[in-house]
């Protein structure tokens, strides 16, 4: 067939401009869907990353507590959290880092311990060095039963939840805001 086309005296047939444009539109749509589904940008994806980071931190601290026979805690505020370690010699909680980890400005944290909503201190109103942790991670393998809510500050924003019954490690779940059935 190739030999016949080369020797043919008629016009060669190729792709039309319309066919090329249709292929480009289809490829562009597929690429756009892939970018949107991967969630490269946006507060919802960042909030999920923050929640996964916190769940991973709790898991690592639980492992460290078991292996090193130490007690750990998380001091929580609406803007972030700080890891503490119990010092048996001085009978005090000591921060492992100088500064607490801060969530992005558009995100906030709240917590319920054993079903009771806990009012978290605001950084300006609290004395960080003296405040004990709200969430305990013990060397026995137990955790304080808790439910943490990470949410966007804007109305109608994404809300995620991490919870533990005191024995299992938390995992990230989508949380429906109060007043909504879901």
From TrEMBL:
Q: What is its main location?
A: membrane
GO annotation (BP), single = protein secretion by the type II secretion system
**Is Manganese one of the keywords?**
no
**Which Pfam families does the record match to this protein?**
GspH, N_methyl
- Membrane topology recorded in Swiss-Prot or TrEMBL: Single-pass membrane protein
Q: Which UniProt keywords apply?
A: Cell inner membrane, Cell membrane, Membrane, Methylation, Transmembrane, Transmembrane helix
An example GO CC term for this entry is: plasma membrane
Domain General secretion pathway GspH positions: 50-166
> Where does this polypeptide localize?
Cell inner membrane
InterPro entries reported for this sequence: N_methyl_site, Pilin-like, T2SS_GspH, T2SS_protein-GspH, TypeII_GspH
Q: Which Gene3D superfamilies match?
A: minor pseudopilin epsh domain
What are the transmembrane regions?
12-36
NCBIfam families assigned to the protein according to its UniProt record, in alphabetical order: IV_pilin_GFxxxE, typeII_sec_gspH
As for family, the record states: Belongs to the GSP H family.
- The name under which this protein is listed is Type II secretion system protein H
């Amino acid at each position: 067939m190739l030999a016949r086309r080369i020797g043919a005296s008629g016009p060669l047939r190729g792709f039309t401009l319309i066919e090329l444009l249709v292929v480009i539109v289809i490829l562009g749509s597929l690429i756009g869907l892939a970018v949107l589904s991967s969630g490269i940008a946006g507060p919802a994806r960042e909030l999920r990353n923050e929640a996964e980071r916190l769940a991973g931190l709790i898991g690592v601290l639980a492992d460290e507590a078991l292996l090193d026979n130490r007690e750990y805690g998380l001091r929580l505020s609406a803007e972030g959290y700080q890891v503490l370690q119990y010092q048996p010699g001085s009978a005090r909680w000591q921060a492992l880092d100088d500064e607490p980890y801060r969530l992005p400005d558009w995100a906030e944290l709240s917590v319920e311990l054993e079903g009771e909503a806990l009012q978290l201190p605001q950084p300006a109103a609290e004395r960080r060095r003296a405040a004990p942790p709200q969430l305990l991670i013990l060397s026995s393998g137990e955790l304080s039963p808790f439910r943490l809510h990470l949410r966007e500050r804007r109305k109608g924003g994404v809300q995620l939840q991490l919870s533990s019954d005191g024995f299992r490690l938390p995992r990230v779940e989508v949380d429906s805001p109060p007043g909504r059935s879901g």
